Write a sequence for this structure.
C-alpha cells in the first residue's frame, strides 16, 4: 500500500532529525558503562603469577584457553617491586598473567597444586556471532561510506548516492520571507499577466465556467536586471500554492540521463501537490535550439529538453500546474518550446519608462532616509535606460556614500555621485594627471559637449567632467528629456558629429591628436555601418539588410556573421561608412571653428571646477546657435519631395475642426517647428 511506503522525504527527515543522535548517544553511553562496570584486573608477569600459585594467597583461579590467560583472585592485595628503580606497585586482589603455549602444562600443574580455596576452572571462549559479523562487515561499511562520500562530492553536494535523478528544485514555503506584487514596480503589464495566473490557481471555476483554459506556461524574457525573477518570486508570495524554483543548469550533471530524470521527478512532485507553480530560471541553459552546434541526438541537453517538452504536453487539463520560465535570450530557444500549448504566453519584461522608474525608485527608497529636497522624478529623468536592478544599485550606492561621509540623510549630491558610479564606475581620486593631459582632456570633453549643444537634433548636455572614472579620463553626458523608442536619421547623424567632436578639438587646438578618441571612433564607425547595412539610410546601398547572423543556436546565434554580398557591394559599404564619418568630422570642425571662444571658455571652467552641471553648461552655451537643418534626405533621386507634412494629433484636429496641413511647398520640421526646405 502506498500509505505504508516510507517516502524519501520522511527518511531524510528522520536521518537529519534529533532521534538518530539520541540513539547514537545511548549506544555510546551503554558501551562506556559496560567498560566501566567490568572488574578492573591488573596485569602481572608470568613469573609473578607462578610465584603466587606457589604461595597460599590464591583463593580462586580461572584458566582461559585460546587467550592463554590466567585470572587469579587473591586473599590480600598483591604488591611487587617493578622497574629499574624497583618501585612498589599495588596490583590489588584481582590479577592476571599470560603464558605461551609451551608453558601450558607447567601453568596447569601449578594451578592444581595451589588448590585454591574457592576452586579453579578452565574456559574456552566461543567467538560471538554478532562480533564475527561486525568484524567482517566493518571494512565493507568503511569502503561503502567512502564510495558514497566520493559520489556525493562528484554530484556537487550532499545528495544520496542513488538520488542523481531526483529534482533539485527548492520548495518555497509559507514560512520564508514573501515577495508580493506590491514589491514589483515598473512592469505593470507583466504583473497584470501573472495576476491572472494567480487568480486561476485560486479560483479555477471562474475561468472554466466560460470555457477558458489556463496557459500551461509563461515565458518572461527581457534584458538582465529588469525583474523577471522578482516577478516569479512575487507570484510565489501571492498565489499561496506550492512553488518549486529551479535553475536551468540544475537539470544537467556529469551523468547521462540525469537531466531527463530530474525533469520527470520535478513535474511528478508538482502534479502530486497541484495546484502548483514551477519556476525555471535561465531556461536557455537546457532549452536551446536542438540539432545544431556541438553534440548529436544523444546530447544530454537535448534529452533534457525532449523530456520537458513531453511533460508540458502531458499536463492534464484538470491538473493545475503552471510553468513559469525566465530567460535573457528568447531568440535561442527551441521553437517547439515556444509554441502555443507549451509557453502560451510570452511576456516581455523591458527596461522601465519614466513612470516605471519613478515607481521603482519609490519602492527601493522605502526605509532610506532622504532630505525633503530630493526629487525622485528628477532622478528618474536622469536615468533613462536604467533597469530595476540599476536603480536599486543607484539608491544603495547613495546610501553607502551617505554612511561613508557620516551624514544621516541622503541628498542630491549623493544621488548624483551614485548615478555616475553606476554609469562610469567609481572616481579614481589617486590618478594624478599633469597640466598638459588635463588640458587635453578638457578640450576633448569640451569638443563633445559643444558640438552636441550646436546640433539641432541632439538631446541636452546634462554634465561634463574631467574627473577620471573607470577607464575614461572624463566623460560628457547627453540625456534625453523623455524616453525614446526609435531614432531618426538626423539624430544618428548628430550623434556621429558630437562623437567626433573630441577628436576634432584635439586637431584644432593641439594639431596632434591622441589615443583618447579611440573609443569614440569605434562607436561612430559602428553606428555608421549600421546606418548603411541595417537601417537602409544610404541612398547608394538602399533599404537592404546586408549580412546575416547565422550563428549556431547552441552557441548563442551570435558566434559568427556571414557576409552574403559581393566584394563590389562591400566596397560601396566601406565608402558610405567613410562618407558618413567624414561628413560628421566636417560638421564638428565647422562648429568648433565657429565657436572657438565658447570652447576656450568651457575649458577654463572645466579646469577650474572639474565638473559642470546642466545649468552651468546652459550659461556657457548661451551664444551658441543651433545649426540649420539638413536638406531633406531622399532614398533615391528619382523620388520627389512631398510637400505635405504629417497631420496634427487627433485632439488638436478635433479642437480646430480640421486636420492641420502645412502650406504647400514647405516641409515642417517636427523637432524645431520651423521650415526646413522650401519647394
Amino acid at each position: 500500500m502506498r500509505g505504508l511506503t516510507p517516502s524519501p522525504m520522511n527518511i531524510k527527515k528522520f536521518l537529519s532529525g534529533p532521534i538518530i543522535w539520541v540513539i547514537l548517544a545511548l549506544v555510546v553511553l551503554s558501551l562506556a558503562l559496560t567498560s566501566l562496570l567490568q572488574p578492573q584486573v591488573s596485569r602481572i608477569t608470568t613469573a609473578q603469577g607462578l610465584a603466587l600459585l606457589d604461595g597460599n594467597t590464591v583463593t580462586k583461579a580461572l584458566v582461559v584457553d585460546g587467550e592463554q590467560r590466567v585470572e587469579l583472585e587473591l586473599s590480600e592485595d598483591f604488591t611487587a617491586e617493578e622497574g629499574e628503580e624497583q618501585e612498589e606497585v599495588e596490583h590489588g586482589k584481582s590479577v592476571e598473567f599470560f603464558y605461551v603455549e609451551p608453558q601450558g602444562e607447567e601453568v596447569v600443574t601449578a594451578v592444581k597444586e595451589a588448590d585454591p580455596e574457592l576452586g579453579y576452572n578452565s574456559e574456552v571462549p566461543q567467538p560471538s556471532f554478532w562480533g564475527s559479523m561486525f568484524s567482517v562487515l566493518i571494512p565493507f561499511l568503511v569502503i561503502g561510506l567512502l564510495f558514497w562520500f566520493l559520489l556525493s562530492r562528484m554530484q556537487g553536494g550532499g545528495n544520496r548516492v542513488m538520488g542523481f535523478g531526483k529534482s533539485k528544485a527548492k520548495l518555497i514555503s509559507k514560512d520564508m520571507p514573501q515577495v508580493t506584487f506590491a514589491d514589483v514596480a515598473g512592469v505593470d503589464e507583466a504583473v497584470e499577466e501573472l495576476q491572472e495566473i494567480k487568480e486561476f490557481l485560486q479560483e479555477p471555476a471562474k475561468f472554466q465556467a466560460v470555457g477558458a483554459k489556463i496557459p500551461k506556461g509563461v515565458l518572461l524574457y527581457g534584458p538582465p536586471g529588469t525583474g523577471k525573477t522578482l516577478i516569479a518570486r512575487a507570484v510565489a508570495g501571492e498565489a499561496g500554492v506550492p512553488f518549486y524554483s529551479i535553475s536551468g543548469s540544475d537539470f544537467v550533471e556529469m551523468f547521462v540521463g540525469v537531466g531527463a530524470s530530474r525533469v520527470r521527478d520535478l513535474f511528478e512532485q508538482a502534479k502530486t501537490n497541484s495546484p502548483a507553480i514551477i519556476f525555471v530560471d535561465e531556461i536557455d541553459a537546457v532549452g536551446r535550439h536542438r540539432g545544431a552546434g556541438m553534440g548529436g541526438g544523444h546530447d544530454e541537453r537535448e534529452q533534457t529538453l525532449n523530456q520537458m517538452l513531453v511533460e508540458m504536453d502531458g499536463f492534464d487539463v484538470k491538473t493545475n500546474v503552471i510553468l513559469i520560465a525566465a530567460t535573457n535570450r528568447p531568440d535561442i530557444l527551441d521553437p517547439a518550446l515556444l509554441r502555443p500549448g507549451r509557453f502560451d504566453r510570452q511576456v516581455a519584461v523591458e527596461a522601465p519608462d519614466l513612470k516605471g522608474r519613478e515607481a521603482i525608485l519609490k519602492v527601493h527608497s522605502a526605509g532610506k532616509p532622504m532630505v525633503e529636497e530630493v526629487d525622485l522624478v528628477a532622478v528618474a529623468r536622469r536615468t533613462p535606460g536604467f533597469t530595476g536592478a540599476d536603480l536599486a544599485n543607484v539608491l544603495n550606492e547613495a546610501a553607502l556614500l551617505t554612511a561613508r561621509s557620516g551624514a544621516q540623510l541622503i541628498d542630491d549630491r549623493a544621488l548624483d555621485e551614485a548615478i555616475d558610479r553606476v554609469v562610469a564606475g567609481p572616481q579614481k581620486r589617486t590618478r594624478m594627471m599633469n597640466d598638459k593631459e588635463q588640458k587635453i582632456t578638457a578640450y576633448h570633453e569640451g569638443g563633445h559637449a559643444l558640438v552636441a549643444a550646436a546640433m539641432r537634433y541632439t538631446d541636452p548636455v546634462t554634465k561634463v567632467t574631467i574627473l577620471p572614472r573607470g577607464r575614461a579620463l572624463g566623460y560628457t553626458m547627453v540625456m534625453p528629456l523623455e524616453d525614446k523608442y526609435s531614432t531618426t536619421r538626423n539624430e544618428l547623424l548628430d550623434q556621429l558629429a558630437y562623437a567626433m567632436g573630441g577628436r576634432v578639438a584635439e586637431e584644432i587646438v593641439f594639431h596632434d591628436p591622441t589615443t583618447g578618441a579611440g573609443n569614440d571612433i569605434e562607436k561612430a564607425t559602428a553606428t555608421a555601418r549600421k546606418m548603411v547595412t541595417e537601417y537602409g539610410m544610404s541612398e547608394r546601398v538602399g533599404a537592404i539588410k546586408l549580412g546575416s547572423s547565422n550563428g549556431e543556436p547552441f552557441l548563442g546565434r551570435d558566434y559568427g556573421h556571414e557576409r552574403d554580398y559581393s566584394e563590389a557591394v562591400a566596397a560601396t559599404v566601406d565608402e558610405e561608412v567613410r562618407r558618413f564619418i567624414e561628413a560628421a568630422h566636417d560638421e564638428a570642425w565647422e562648429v568648433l571653428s565657429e565657436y572657438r571662444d565658447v570652447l576656450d571658455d568651457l575649458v577654463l571652467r572645466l579646469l577650474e571646477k572639474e565638473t559642470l552641471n546642466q545649468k552651468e553648461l546652459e550659461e556657457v552655451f548661451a551664444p551658441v546657435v543651433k545649426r540649420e537643418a539638413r536638406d531633406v534626405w531622399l532614398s533615391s533621386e528619382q523620388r520627389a519631395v512631398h510637400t505635405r507634412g504629417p497631420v496634427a494629433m487627433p485632439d488638436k484636429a478635433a479642437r480646430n475642426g480640421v486636420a492641420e496641413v502645412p502650406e504647400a511647398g514647405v516641409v515642417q520640421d517636427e523637432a524645431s517647428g520651423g521650415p526646413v526646405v522650401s519647394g
Summary: Residues 567-594 form the longest helix (28 residues). The longest strand covers residues 69-82. The domain at 354-424 is CATH 1.10.8.60 (Helicase, Ruva Protein; domain 3). Confidence is low (pLDDT under 50) at residues 1-9, 156-162, 551-560, 658-679.
